[in-house]
Specification:
Elements lengths: L1 E5 L4 H12 L3 E6 L8 E3 L8 H10 L4 E4 L12 H19 L3 E5 L13 H14 L4 E7 L2 E2 L4 H11 L2 E5 L5 E2 L2 E2 H13 L6 E5 L5 E2 H11 L6 E5 L1 H11 L9 H8 L9 H5 L6 H7 L14 H24 L6 H7 L4 H24 L3 H21 L14 H16 L4 H9 L22
Parallel strand pairs: 1-2, 1-4, 2-3, 4-5, 5-6, 6-11, 7-10, 8-13
Antiparallel strand pairs: 9-12
Length: 459
């Protein structure tokens, strides 16, 4: 078959192009970076193209089927939801009707539903394209996958980055449900729909092996990177919404208020058609990441040689224990009582603050020597920042002292963070056991023709 794959340079599109070529089809990969001939084609849905022009192009290339994978998660000055998701594809679909193309597979989005209040612009643009395609009388398959991960996935790179941080922020409690599907298995499903001998018309919701909470998903990404424990920090949704608004102002195309709302409503198929279309159970997230390891946008991994780590821990422990000892034994001569008084702790309150500070410092020093952990280094970071800001606010002259008593806390904080990242980068035995037991994704395995796994949608 001669097949046009629109969006052939993206994560999903590349996987579909490879799957179809692996099966022996001639594939034209259309993208913004394509050229006018051969096995690629220039495509920009932002540019209006009448259906008659599309029909002529499709006839010249003798296209038998069209797969549309073009999609964006955030609009920009040169890519709007209306043009990229709705108007441009509909022009193509109408051209396919004029050219007599036999089948169209549209990669839509999970969560698309009849129009309702609160519908995001992203879902609305996908819905309008789906409805237009189904109304044309074509043999149309609407594929609505959950989160897609795999080589080149921008979403997977973001999740891998978030999961690699020593402190992982969770929207709310991180209980939002998702069911990620590997791009290679999605490509295998699409190839099967393109090749189906009978009608493929229908709407197919797709997901991986099983639903996960958002926190479980990030924990799986973290384990796949060989990382150990992290600090999980639940964040109120209004704060997450503010972060999404700010993220929209920086050059990235993944995190926005729309994508946050999509996550909050959940991303799990009502009826997962993947097992029937694959002829087997789809892979789980851990299995897929074992085959195509996640690639974070930036790495926070720190590996320290044992002598270096011991040297840093001994230095840090000495600092905490010495501070506790000198403050307890020489409170007047060390100046700690005067510092506490400047900070508002006088009399019995000063003595209590001194005792608490000494106890905290001694505990931090002892644990640094005996029981280092990510939680310990997180507390140490908070203590260093808290001590420094309190002293700088109440005794500002310490910030310009030529001996830099407060400024020296910055390299101390750096030392704590380096040890923290090194501790967080150590894989736990449980993570290693999980990685050794995962199965292998079997991409593009030919499947026999199957009935649509969900109810057909009448034209």
């Amino acid at each position: 078959m001669n097949i046009l794959v629109c969006g052939g340079s993206g994560c999903i599109g590349r996987a579909i192009v490879q799957a179809l070529r692996w099966r022996g089809h001639r594939v034209v990969a259309a993208s913004r970076n394509g050229n006018a001939g051969g096995e690629t084609m220039a495509l920009d849905f932002m540019q209006v193209r009448p259906p008659a022009d599309w029909a002529a192009e499709l006839r010249i290339r003798r296209i038998d089927a069209v797969v549309n994978c073009v999609g964006i998660l955030m609009p920009s000055a040169d890519a709007s939801f209306a043009r990229v998701h709705t108007e441009g594809p509909v022009e193509l679909f109408r051209g396919a009707v004029l050219a007599g193309v036999g089948r169209v597979v549209q990669i839509s989005a999970l969560g698309v539903a009849p129009a309702r209040a609160g519908e995001t612009e992203y879902l609305r643009s996908k819905r309008l394209a789906d409805e237009a395609l189904l109304g044309l009388g074509l043999d149309a398959a609407i594929v609505r996958p959950s989160l897609v991960f795999g080589p080149g996935s921008a979403g997977a790179a973001l999740f891998a980055t978030l999961a690699s941080l020593p402190v992982i922020g969770l929207p709310g409690q991180g209980r939002q449900r998702v069911q990620p599907i590997h791009a290679l298995e999605l490509a295998e499903i699409v190839a099967g729909l393109v090749e189906r001998s009978g009608s493929a018309r229908g709407i197919y919701e797709l997901g991986g092996k099983e639903p996960l909470t958002y926190r479980q998903m990030l924990a799986t990404y973290r384990a796949a990177q060989g990382l150990g424990d992290a600090i999980w920090l639940p964040l109120p949704m209004p704060l997450m919404a503010l972060g999404a608004r700010l993220a929209e102002q920086v050059p990235q195309r993944v995190f926005s208020r729309d994508t946050l709302r999509l996550l909050e409503r959940g991303n799990v198929p009502v009826r997962n058609a993947a097992p029937a279309l694959l002829g087997r159970a789809p892979s789980g997230l851990d299995e897929g990441l074992a085959v195509t390891p996640p690639r974070p946008l930036l790495s926070t991994r720190v590996d320290l040689a044992l002598p270096v780590e011991l040297g840093l821990r001994l230095s840090l422990a000495f600092l905490w224990i010495y501070t506790a000892a000198i403050s307890a034994w020489l409170p007047e001569r060390s100046g700690v009582l005067e510092l506490l008084a400047r900070c508002g702790f006088v009399g019995s309150a000063g003595q209590a603050a001194l005792a608490a500070s000494c106890a905290l410092n001694l505990t931090l020093g002892a644990l640094t020597l005996l029981r280092p952990s990510v939680l310990l280094y997180a507390v140490q970071s908070g203590a260093v920042i808290g001590y420094t800001l309190t002293a700088a606010f109440n005794v500002p002259e310490l910030t310009i002292d030529h001996c830099a008593p407060l400024v020296k806390n910055l390299p101390v904080l750096g030392c704590v963070v380096v040890l923290w990242l090194a501790e967080a980068g150590r894989p736990s035995p449980r993570a290693g056991a999980r990685r050794s037991a995962v199965a292998v994704v079997r991409p593009w395995r030919p499947s026999p023709p199957l009935r649509p796994a969900t109810r057909d949608v009448p034209a």
